Amino acid sequence: MPMNDKHDPITLEIIQSSLQAATDEMFAALRRTAMSAIIYEVLDMGTGITDKNGELAGSGAGIPAFVGVLDKAVKRVLEKFNQPGDIEPGDIFITNDPYSGGVTHLNDVVLVMPVFAGDEIVAWTANIAHWNDVGGMVPGSMSTDATEIFQEGLILAAIKLFSRGQPIR
Asked: pTM of the full predicted structure?
């Protein structure tokens, strides 16, 4: 029986293993460089790679629930920055908006960055990690007395943090 080149299982496994290795390396780098014990000890984080449309292609270790957040964050960025030239090499986007990015609460912050081949986006890298404080009404930003989300901290609704590799001030 001839093998269909389009669905060659060996090639598919090599690609999947490569994506897994890349996301595992992203996870290890995030853990090594983290300044917060909740990230480097508790591992309250996750990493992933999506295709150009935001569909998850690979994920690293970490909190399993976080894996399902990364694709939603990328899709939100694609929805918001949908004009030619809105997304360029070196751009980094940030979100913690539970209403449009899928995060569980404001302290879980997602960073996403496009991967380009020439002038075309071919993939996205993404990570999510728990930040200790995002400016809520109490230290740590999580209060049982909060009556609205604005008391829990700063809401970052898919905003561009870096443009062409430079921080936006």
From this structure: 0.90
